[in-house]
Amino acid sequence: MITPPLLHKGDKVEIVATARKVTLSDITEGVEILQSWGLKVVFAENLFEEDNQFAGTDEMRAADLQNAINDRDIKAIFCARGGYGTVRIIDRVDFSGLLDNPKWIIGFSDVTVIHNKMNNLGIESIHAPMMVTIADATPESKNALRKILFGIDYENDEQQGKCETISYTTEVETCKIANRKGTATGEVVGGNLSILYSQIGSNSDIQTNDKILFIEDLDEYLYHIDRMMMSLKRSGKLEHLKGLIVGAFSDMHDNTIPFGKTAEEIIMEAVKDYDYPVCFNMPFGHISNNMPITLGRKVTLDVGDKEVNLKFEDKGAETDKKTQFKQFSVSVLWFTIFFVIALILGFLARHFINN
């Protein structure tokens, strides 16, 4: 997987709305947080446009995302919010420029469509709070996001450029269903369950064999959760996993006649025939303590009796060195070209003078 380079103070980042409409007041606090990190924040041209529920027409939203991808001065793209609409533009956008000029794309929920696309291209992305939610995120969540992006702690600007290993440890909570213990290592993929379900069979569907799948969701009926898990199972998404991470399933609904199972029980029933580790109530999803996940990164998941540990492979420092070497190589190449041109011009000048 390609890891985008670390951010640095003074880098320019862009806010893009790929789905539901957004206002300036919705994102003002989020913008101030990014600015406090030393980033120069710019708005997509059509960021505050409206087309019923959407942030402008499909053409406008696709153009904004495409421009942010193509602009080499933009070092990261922060999605404004989720809702619905990213799937309407995903096939209008050419992501191939990120292979040569990788940059972080940050968001969750409806942005899972983009995360899937990035994963299929072989580029890491970050499942994390967006502009409308980051102000309400816990300090731990903001700290972890900044640590991933910059390689430094939230309160310590002296560590810029130094990458540290990201890991999360969560105590096992008492609930109706227990975790399934075990240890697994593999690439973490996934995101919002509803979006993963809706992408099955499309060109932004993801391959889950030998991967650690992460799922979360919000505001769904329990029978919908069952329908989606059955679809994932029947399409082969669950059988060959290395592990399953279940984040927050917030604000679940039931019918007048109860479905009879919690979201966690529905999920465990769908994977009961397999033997990989499964953990519930992890701090990811539509909650204030929405910890960032570097999707596409190799992780080690250890589900024990008393706690769950998720440790991410540290690639950031290596990537930053590769980026610096690439920049140095380009500089050397240009210097060589100009030096050769100068020699040729000097030779031609002497030739004309002598003749």
Tell me what the structure shows.
- There is one protein chain.
- The chain has three domains: 1-155, Murein tetrapeptidase LD-carboxypeptidase, N-terminal domain (Rossmann fold), CATH 3.40.50.10740; 165-314, 3-Layer(bba) Sandwich (Glucose Oxidase, domain 1); 318-355.
- It is 34% helix and 20% strand.
- The chain has helices spanning 24-36, 58-70, 97-100, 112-121, 139-150, 193-199, 222-234, 263-270, 316-354; strands spanning 12-16, 40-43, 74-79, 104-107, 125-127, 167-171, 182-192, 211-218, 243-250, 278-279, 293-295, 298-303, 307-312.
- The termini are far apart.
Beta content = 15-25%
Q: Largest sheet, if any?
A: 7 strands, mixed
Question: What is the CATH architecture annotation of the largest domain?
Answer: 3-Layer(aba) Sandwich
Distance between the termini: 59 Å
| Uncertain stretches | 159-163, 317-321
**CATH-defined topology of the largest domain:** Rossmann fold
Using brief descriptors, characterize the structure shown:
355 residues; alpha/beta; Rossmann fold; Glucose Oxidase, domain 1; 3 domains; 7-stranded mixed sheet; 6-stranded mixed sheet; 9 helices; 13 strands; 20% strand
